[in-house]
Amino acid sequence: MITKNFAYHAPADLHGVVTALSAASGTAVVLGGGTMLVPDMTHGKTVADVVVDLSRAGLSGITLDGGGGPHDGPVADDGVSDGRVADGRVADGRVADGRVADGGVVVVGATTTYAHVLSDPRSRTLAPLLRRVAGGVTGGPQIRNKGTIGGSACYANPSSEVPAALVALGARLRLASAGGTREVAAGDFFTGAFATARRPGEVLAAIALPAPTGPCPGYTKLKLNESSWPIATAACVPGPDGALRVALGAVAATPLLVTLDPPEAGVADPAWRAHVREVVDAALAEPWSDVLADGDYRRRVAPVVAVRAVADALQQAEGES
Amino acid sequence: MTVTTSGKAGVRAIGSPVRKADGPALLTGRGRFLDDYSLPGTRHAVVVRSELAHARIVDVDVRAAAASPGVVLVLTGEEAAAHAGPIPHFIEPAARGGRHADVRCLATGKVVYAGEPVAAVVAGTRREAEAAAALVRVEYERLPHVLDADAALEQDAPRLYEEWPDNVILHNHYGTGDVDAALAGADLVVSDTIRISRTTTAPIEPRGYLASWDDLDGTLTVYGSLQNPHQLRWMLATSLGLDETAIRVITARVGGSFGLKMQGHPEETLVCLLSKLTGAPVKWIEDRRECFMAGAREQVHRFTIGAMRDGRIVAVRDRIVANTGAVSAQAGWAMPNMSATTLASGYTVPNVRAELHVVVTNKPPLNAARGFGKDSAHFVMERMVDLVARGLGADPAEVRRKNFIPPDRFPYRTATGLNIDSGDYPGLLDKALRVLDYDALRLRQAELRAAGRHLGIGLAFELTPESADGPGSFVSGFDVTTVRMTMTGGVTVYTGVTSPGGGNDTGIAQIVSDELGVPLSWITVVQGDTERCPSGFGNFSGRSMVVGGGSAALAARDVRAKLAVVGARMLDVPVDEVKVADGRLRATGDGRSVPVPEVAAAVLTRAFAIANDVEPVLEATRAYKPGNIDHVPDERGRIQPYPTYSNCLHAAVVEVDPETGVTKLVDFVMAHDCGVIINPALVEGQAHGAIVMGLGAALSERLTYDADGRLTSDRFKTYLMPRAGDLPTIRLEHQVTPSPFTMYGNKGAGEAGVGGAQAAVANAVEDALAPFGVTVREVPLSPPAVLALIDEARTR
């Protein structure tokens, strides 16, 4: 039970959100879907003076921002925006023949739920990896209807799968505050276990993804059973040069990005598997350890999920050609 | 709790899969659970618990808490001890040759586990009580603690109870025969160790109590989510120093229990005391993290088994160390007893020797849990049988068949003294293997193995002694039911057994329907109220249909006999020429009939006319005592506390991923024999639940603690129960071997599955990984544990 009184705001737009955050005295927390924050407050792990609820701020939805422009759109790194994305939405873009023009940016509003990702047909073409991630979220309709992609990113639980998926996709996180909006690359956003580059007074407004140009990324998730948090995840995005960009999740405090050689002799090739083990092991300085699985186990299975994600990516690519 | 059941006319109710009487209420959210009860002026209690596993309490500072908004009372252990005595044990260890320790509702002097209640706060709302509880400051002097049972047996181990010479609450030997000689003469001798991790029962509804003390007439009314209202009344009378007759216990609908809600918990006495001290109704609802403290099992077995070349098992020796945690007044400490006495299960092993140490440690107490120790016996026995098969290069199915008690040798007295009533174990094996298509499956396994995939098949037999009776205790082998018919033919059944959610109320209504000859829809079953129901013993040990059903049948027959006398007069035929069915009393000769309500009205309103010389009471209270219980020790000192022995054979098919250690359940078959089935839907529901509980223990469930003894698996994301997606369709096959010792030939049902499923999965995983040569030595077989097994086999 939450034993301490707190001020509650549910602003009607992003401007109201950042205003409420900047005006907050004491500890302010941002409420997305609440699947983590509410239990943490109930258990006294998080004690807040101010709760700013995003549910009425209109930050939900998947849209395509134009195309042809730079991926990070009009917002400069760590800079202040021209205001175009301040509401977290941009004009819907073109989706022709199930394909997206190169260079477009897919904008996933911060409060887009897993259920939204699954029910919105545009996610098939605009955010196929997030769709796969959302489809594998257990906990029933309650969690899928309330839990958000943005919330999972901001909670930065090493054991959840959204952070690594965003890193794999080269996502940029749009952080709004009273001072303006800045973008942070996913690779820089996750700074530690349950820690991000989001500053006090900032709210995640949206996640910008480069519009997909190739086949669906490969994906693998390992859990101990259906109840379990992910123990190791891998998302594989084949690059245009044939190199394989693999983001490993849940194996370390923050997502781990490695680049693998393509398996010329197939994924069963022992030499290539040894290469994967070597690369992953070298990158995995300090494996994550928790009640469910220790670091040794995670180190052991990290290359296994990497191999499986690559195999999955190659299979997806084959399906497309 | 009061329920009414509906059913079809003209159909014999016993044996029908009648739907649960409370199904509609549950499905539409109208089931009334403990937290739904509210009395005017109810206050809310929160328990302050020890943060340390072992410490002397130096000081409890309640000033800040007492000054917190809404707080009515903050109670410390010292103050509680001035008003309430020790809680009497459900099963007194000293009466079983063990050691006694006083357990109070709040700790005094020292705490012996992290989570032990040290203080309580009562406030106007739960929120105020929680806020105040956080302000109670307890100063401790830390003492060395011990969490592992083997370590607790060491000479210099920290001592939980200073008056004891060691940390052993019970040490005993079981079994007969010359094990050493038999092992010396055996062709194959296998010794190994098995560790069974601590799990919990995790019912969907945690515990909860609402107590209301009436200061004017000095009476106490307690609503609770519990299993044993009459025993609790006695227990509260003892701990609170009240007359039993001043206490009324009312059992709310129970949202699952699995033994957890058998009485003996400190909060039972505590909540009543808080009501008495505040003069207001006080409610306490356990939160999920508190509920996770309750341990269900934790044992280490060091065993040796000997067999002859032909597969005959000649001897079993087992040294069991059970970690019962701190002492509780609940029955949990006694479970390992049954782990020893249930050896060697349903096999004709002439020489069995089990040595048991039940050890206290600074973990939270074990609480009674489905399986009640029998589960661990089967897990270990079935692992032993598989190791014999492996050692002999024999088929595990055939080694079991070779050693089963033959169907013509019942009743069969085992080496530990159990007198098994009846059974056809080879029949179960045949059924299970047929459903599995065993030979084809073995071929498929070989094909997959050649392709680098690891399919495994595991078998396990399980024997479930049920409906226990413990002489001189409240573990009673009989129960009592009242059947009462109103003037209009309505029937209310008041029974001493309770339903923890399994639906025995529906089964009892079915029995009364058949025995009384009235439709199910006329029958209401009342359970769990000490003021309304006859003195009985509630729910445990698969007893409810055996003794609740048996006593209901006897009482219904008495009422029917009276209806028959008066009804026969109304039809003007001899009394032996009428029968009662479907709510009518019928002449067997010409078929003329009269409605039962008219007969009932005649008994009760024409007592000086047609019902003259008939005692005008349409009500009977009867007790039912099944046969086969024998407390006179035999020449070897063995007693026989169980009337019935349900049995079943499990077959698990798994596929193991040797790269990740993940085990996927591919198929699960259970051939089950609980004698005559009163309601197959209820039996199957119980079996599914018990199997899944066993599958969880086998693969994923484990309570974990940090080095300081604090629980780290206190939510469903850290204590991993199976979900639907983890489970195959469970295929159940029934076999009916009637018990000669019960009313209908029925045997207890509801516990079978916990041990057998664990064993079948463990055997299947070992079988799947046979190419690596692994030996399973512990559960749960979580993916990291499975990889460790493969590593161990590789480096050997």
From TrEMBL, chain A:
<dbReference type="InterPro" id="IPR002346">
    <property type="entry name" value="Mopterin_DH_FAD-bd"/>
</dbReference>
<dbReference type="InterPro" id="IPR016167">
    <property type="entry name" value="FAD-bd_PCMH_sub1"/>
</dbReference>
<feature type="domain" description="FAD-binding PCMH-type">
    <location>
        <begin position="1"/>
        <end position="214"/>
    </location>
</feature>
<dbReference type="InterPro" id="IPR036318">
    <property type="entry name" value="FAD-bd_PCMH-like_sf"/>
</dbReference>
<dbReference type="InterPro" id="IPR051312">
    <property type="entry name" value="Diverse_Substr_Oxidored"/>
</dbReference>
<protein>
    <submittedName>
        <fullName>Carbon monoxide dehydrogenase</fullName>
    </submittedName>
</protein>
<keyword id="KW-0274">FAD</keyword>
<dbReference type="GO" id="GO:0016491">
    <property type="term" value="F:oxidoreductase activity"/>
</dbReference>
<dbReference type="InterPro" id="IPR005107">
    <property type="entry name" value="CO_DH_flav_C"/>
</dbReference>
<dbReference type="GO" id="GO:0071949">
    <property type="term" value="F:FAD binding"/>
</dbReference>
<dbReference type="InterPro" id="IPR016166">
    <property type="entry name" value="FAD-bd_PCMH"/>
</dbReference>
<dbReference type="InterPro" id="IPR036683">
    <property type="entry name" value="CO_DH_flav_C_dom_sf"/>
</dbReference>
<dbReference type="Pfam" id="PF00941">
    <property type="entry name" value="FAD_binding_5"/>
</dbReference>
<keyword id="KW-0560">Oxidoreductase</keyword>
<dbReference type="InterPro" id="IPR016169">
    <property type="entry name" value="FAD-bd_PCMH_sub2"/>
</dbReference>
<keyword id="KW-0285">Flavoprotein</keyword>
Automatic annotation (TrEMBL), chain B:
<dbReference type="InterPro" id="IPR046867">
    <property type="entry name" value="AldOxase/xan_DH_MoCoBD2"/>
</dbReference>
<dbReference type="Pfam" id="PF02738">
    <property type="entry name" value="MoCoBD_1"/>
</dbReference>
<dbReference type="InterPro" id="IPR000674">
    <property type="entry name" value="Ald_Oxase/Xan_DH_a/b"/>
</dbReference>
<dbReference type="InterPro" id="IPR008274">
    <property type="entry name" value="AldOxase/xan_DH_MoCoBD1"/>
</dbReference>
<dbReference type="InterPro" id="IPR036856">
    <property type="entry name" value="Ald_Oxase/Xan_DH_a/b_sf"/>
</dbReference>
<keyword id="KW-0560">Oxidoreductase</keyword>
<dbReference type="InterPro" id="IPR037165">
    <property type="entry name" value="AldOxase/xan_DH_Mopterin-bd_sf"/>
</dbReference>
<dbReference type="Pfam" id="PF20256">
    <property type="entry name" value="MoCoBD_2"/>
</dbReference>
<feature type="domain" description="Aldehyde oxidase/xanthine dehydrogenase a/b hammerhead">
    <location>
        <begin position="28"/>
        <end position="144"/>
    </location>
</feature>
<dbReference type="GO" id="GO:0005506">
    <property type="term" value="F:iron ion binding"/>
</dbReference>
<keyword id="KW-0500">Molybdenum</keyword>
<protein>
    <submittedName>
        <fullName>Carbon monoxide dehydrogenase</fullName>
    </submittedName>
</protein>
<dbReference type="InterPro" id="IPR016208">
    <property type="entry name" value="Ald_Oxase/xanthine_DH-like"/>
</dbReference>
<dbReference type="GO" id="GO:0016491">
    <property type="term" value="F:oxidoreductase activity"/>
</dbReference>
<dbReference type="Pfam" id="PF01315">
    <property type="entry name" value="Ald_Xan_dh_C"/>
</dbReference>
